[in-house]
Design goal:
Layout lengths: L1 H11 L9 H12 L2 H36 L7 H28 L2 H21 L3 H29 L2 H28 L2 H20 L5 H6 L3 H12 L3 H14 L2 H6 L4 H4 L3 H19 L2 H6 L1 H9 L5 H26 L1 H27 L8 H17 L4 H5 L9 H53 L8 H10 L1 H13 L1
Helix pairs in contact: 3-4, 3-6, 3-7, 3-8, 4-5, 4-6, 4-21, 5-6, 5-8, 6-7, 7-8, 7-17, 10-11, 14-21, 14-22, 16-17, 17-18, 17-19, 18-19, 18-21, 22-23
Length: 500
């Protein structure tokens, strides 16, 4: 600790003829021109641009598939091929998840994102220049790989460079960026050929790479590598030099002296995974993530144009309806960010689950009545309204909350393992739902597929009702004790508070 403190004093107190170090003068000049919020927002925009690319990857298949069908009308574009075009990116997610943690620790958060940007640009370029379906699939695999790579990396980087007051805002910005990326890919494909749209989608990671090139590395990562001088400089650049920020910096550097002690505790991981504070939240999060995928919300994103043709009839308003649904998705995510601060996680999850179930079942019944000619003519207003309600309420909770809660439910010592397993399971479920959707539409019809998604969401919501805890306003220790002791933990906590 003494070595770290002395290095900190050299930079913060060390002087020249004016009593200030060169470092202190430099960051004073920067701070006089730009506030910490402006600097954090600017660098976070780089991560947002990469998230735009992730959203574009998820949504690109919905404009790619109908154009490929038209381009290949004299060739056999089978249902199997259609499913692979949509699902190839989701197949690669799992592999991206696997290397993300290793690379962010080995290379650093900033450097890993820059390398990711290069791969992302390469993937979109391959799709844009592709002359056959095999190159398109290869490009889709690369962009999906980058999407999985970014999944854990983006939130870690943004969380580490953000001040506590702004952290929630910037982390919510990542989810909004993904939804906005879906909208932009659909917008490009509405007016442009898929190859030109691909190049425009590749511009998102390009802009992100340029911004991140000028960014300092994450101070937390630098501290973990014992690069104290660079850590202090980067921290002051991002956070400023207020007394509160200096206290946080001191604590960060002090915590690194305990790094070896923390690493030795990894040997007890096999003991921790047997504890209820690990396996209980793990089961909850795996089910929650699978329910999110089985609600079908990502299927709507991947096959939007085909779905809209069925929902409103085969007419020229298909793309307009798709873009309207995309805008509604963004509005729902903004609303969710506001409601989470006021209502908590559990009420929002149950509300979203119940109304997602109802909207899916009602949509299935309506489409079934159309198929059986109980209703003779489709009403775009009714069918599109049911779809709009479904998209809005699912993005209000079911689609968003697992990503918010995965960092809250696990105890500190098992957070990495628990969140890693949970995210990998959702990647598998994501691929499964996207890959099987065309075959389900063909075999069971749209009404049967939506009924399956609705019933799956219903069972998932019932599970969440009995087992999903509320985490709003609770410390990580309180959450862990509730899993460890159940009702006894709550009583114990109440007793302790009463005695105090």
């Amino acid at each position: 600790m003494m070595d770290h403190t002395s290095e900190l004093e050299k930079i913060n107190v060390g002087g020249n003829e004016n009593g200030k170090s060169e470092t202190e003068k430099t960051y004073s000049e920067v701070e006089s021109r730009h506030s910490p919020f402006a600097r954090q927002a600017f660098i976070s925009t780089g991560a947002f641009m990469l998230s735009f690319g992730a959203g574009a990857t998820a949504g690109f298949s919905s404009i790619l598939i109908p154009q490929l069908k038209h381009d290949m009308k004299n060739h056999n574009f089978s249902t199997e091929m259609e499913s692979w075009v949509a699902a190839m990116a989701s197949l690669a997610l799992l592999f991206g998840n696997m290397i993300s943690g290793y690379l962010m620790e080995k290379m650093g958060r900033r450097a890993s994102q820059i390398l990711l940007s290069v791969f992302y640009i390469g993937g979109w370029t391959i799709i844009g220049f592709a002359g056959n379906i095999h190159l398109i699939l290869f490009g889709r695999f690369i962009t999906g790989f980058c999407q999985g790579w970014l999944g854990p990396l983006g939130p870690v980087f943004v969380g580490e460079i953000s001040s506590p007051a702004y952290r929630g805002l910037f982390l919510a910005g990542l989810s909004l960026s993904i939804a906005s990326g879906v909208f932009m890919s659909h917008l490009f494909g509405t007016f442009l050929h898929w190859s030109h749209a691909s190049f425009l989608c590749g511009a998102f990671p390009l802009f992100g790479c340029i911004i991140l090139y000028f960014a300092p590395e994450s101070p937390a990562w630098l501290a973990s590598k014992n690069e104290i001088d660079r850590c202090i400089k980067a921290f002051q650049w991002y956070r400023g030099t207020s007394a509160a920020m200096k206290m946080e910096l001191d604590k960060m550097i002090e915590d690194q002296t305990k790094k070896k002690e923390v690493q030795s505790k990894l040997k007890t991981l096999t003991v921790n995974i047997k504890k209820p504070e690990f396996w209980k939240p793990l089961c909850i999060m795996i089910v929650f993530f699978i329910v999110t995928q089985l609600s079908g919300i990502n299927v709507v994103c991947a096959y939007a144009t085909d779905i809209m043709e069925v929902i409103i009839g085969n007419n020229s308003n298909t793309y307009a309806a798709m873009l309207a649904i995309d805008i509604l998705r963004v509005i729902a995510l903004v609303s969710a960010c506001i409601l989470l601060r006021r209502k908590g996680r559990r009420p929002l999850a149950l509300f979203s689950g119940v109304f997602t179930t109802c909207s899916l079942i009602l949509l299935a019944i309506y489409l079934y009545m159309l198929e059986k000619r109980i209703i003779r003519h489709i009403s775009p207003i009714i069918s599109l309204s049911l779809m709009a309600i479904y998209v809005f309420v699912s993005n209000l909770g079911i689609s968003l909350l697992p990503w918010n809660m995965v960092g809250e439910l696990f105890a500190t010592e098992t957070k990495g393992l628990g969140s890693g397993i949970s995210v990998m399971m959702t990647s598998v479920a994501f691929f499964g739902t996207i890959k099987t959707a065309p075959a389900m539409f063909k075999s069971f019809g749209h009404h049967g597929t939506y009924l399956f998604y609705g019933i799956s969401t219903l069972f998932g919501t019932i599970f969440l009702y009995f087992y999903l805890p509320e985490t709003r306003g609770k410390t990580l220790l309180q959450i862990a004790e509730e899993f460890r002791y159940g009702d006894k933990g709550r009583k114990k906590e109440t007793t302790e508070l009463t005695s105090v």
